[in-house]
Write a structure and sequence with these properties.
This protein is mainly alpha-helical. It has helices at 3-43, 46-73, 76-100, 105-133, 139-167, 170-188, 211-223, 226-241, 243-256, 261-284, 291-308, 311-314, 319-351, 357-385, 388-406, 409-415, 417-432. 84% of the residues lie in helices and 0% in strands. The longest helix is centred in the first third of the chain and has 41 residues, at 3-43.
């Protein structure tokens, strides 16, 4: 295949990847919305609802290292297609149960576990395959379009879910999700995952590496990449400290500010719109020159806005002003998350060898997911004991402090040696002029 044909195929990949991601993200979120509603309506139990959330988080956290090994060892296209087919069959199974014996919590939990696993396998595989699907010049565009489809699904799915939940029965919901999943499988089957891939072909006669040896090789590779280790530590600690926002935000707005549910929903929508706007911006602008530095500044910005959530607890404001303030704060936080994620992910896509991407991204997924439940449990306890504003301000200060230490100027210089050269050239130009 010549370069012109490759670029044409890469353009096709950009759009099929975005459409299939949008269909699967949208379907999954509308399904999650409907199932959550169904569980709460059928049982009225917060414990049953929480158990379904655990079924969404726990399987993907436990299986992520295994997924990384599979993604690096086997055909990535085959893994994506099998995962999407398994999603379709799991929904089909739940549909069959609803027709024969009626929906039960056991059937819903089992389906949630299967969908959690399939979405994780599909997610890790797609993330590891970006540089195989598109040319290097458009990696940032691909990452932005991916994020755009997730953000769009986050904005539209509650509205669509709410409309459909009142209008159609649960079996119709499931049939629609199955149809969407089938379209996604069809699109994914037309993609060439090896178009720009740079993976080593297995040597005949070479002994097969066991899963444990493969994981050890991935960790050894990671240890040789100090910048990747720094990024993983930053993402670990940020995900943990961001629990102060995840738990505290709803608690403050609903319990302390007595915000009505519709207005609360608007503020959450503003967060998703912030993400969508910045994803569109990154999909059309040229690649970020110093991604680590840009992400560092955006994380410090996130710390400032996280602390700012506490301000209406300390200063008396009218209801209208509180609502406007949180709309702006949430929009800014959503935008900053994209400014952190997109440049960092592009940098990692280009730095990690194709043969190790599955394992590295799965380690990142495991570590970031592992501390999230712990952060939520800890902050849930802290918000019951201490005043909300001090928890937020302390966590925001810790987040900024962690960033200033882990991404200190010496680390930024190592990540971007050309930054120092540019600065010295600018200083020289200033002296000359």
């Amino acid at each position: 295949m010549d370069d012109h044909q490759k670029l044409k195929k890469a353009t096709y990949h950009l759009w099929t990847f975005t459409i299939s991601k949008l269909i699967s993200s949208f379907g999954a979120q509308v399904y999650a919305f409907a199932i959550s509603f169904y569980i709460l309506q059928a049982t009225g139990s917060a414990t049953s609802f929480a158990a379904n959330l655990i079924c969404n988080i726990l399987p993907r956290t436990l299986a992520a290292p295994f997924a990384g090994y599979m993604v690096d060892k086997y055909s990535r296209k085959m893994i994506v297609i099998i995962a999407q087919i398994a999603t379709t069959l799991a929904i089909g199974g739940l549909l069959a149960v609803s027709f024969t014996s009626g929906l039960s919590l056991a059937a819903i939990y089992t389906t949630s576990c299967i969908l959690s696993l399939t979405s994780m396998f599909s997610g890790v595989t797609f993330t590891s395959s970006i540089t195989g699907l598109v040319d290097k010049e458009r990696v940032q565009r691909a990452m932005s379009l991916n994020q755009m489809s997730i953000s769009f699904a986050a904005i539209a799915s509650p509205a669509v879910g709410g409309l459909l939940y009142g209008a159609v029965s649960m079996p119709v919901f499931l049939i629609m999700y199955m149809a969407a999943s089938t379209i996604a499988v069809t699109l994914e089957s037309t993609m060439n995952f090896k178009l720009f891939a740079n993976r080593k072909e297995p040597v005949i006669g070479e002994p097969n590496e066991s899963m444990w040896q493969s994981m050890k090789a991935g960790i050894s590779y990671l240890k040789l990449q100090p910048l990747l280790m720094t990024i993983i530590w930053i993402s670990l600690l940020i995900n943990f400290l961001f629990g102060a926002f995840e738990v505290g935000y709803s608690f403050i707005l609903i319990e302390k500010m007595k915000m009505v549910s519709q207005h609360f929903g608007f503020t959450q929508g503003a967060f998703a719109i912030g993400m969508l706007f910045l994803s569109i911006y990154f999909s059309i602008r040229k690649e970020v020159k110093f991604p680590f530095l840009v992400s560092k500044r955006a994380i410090i910005g996130m710390g400032i806005f996280m602390g700012a959530i506490a301000l209406p607890l300390m200063i008396k404001m009218t209801y209208g002003l509180v609502f406007s303030y949180y709309m702006i704060t949430m929009f800014s936080l959503g935008a900053l998350i994209i400014i952190v994620n997109t440049p960092l992910m592009v940098m990692m896509q280009k730095q990690i060898d194709d043969d190790y991407k599955g394992r590295i991204f799965s380690i990142l997924e495991t570590m970031s997911m592992a501390l999230m439940p712990l952060g939520m449990v800890l902050y849930g306890f802290l918000y019951d004991v201490f005043q909300a504003q001090w928890i937020l301000l302390l966590s925001a200060s810790l987040l900024i402090g962690v960033m200033l230490v882990l991404a200190r100027p010496a680390v930024v210089r190592k990540a971007h040696p050309q930054l120092e050269r540019e600065r010295s050239l600018k200083r020289e130009a200033g002296v000359v002029s």
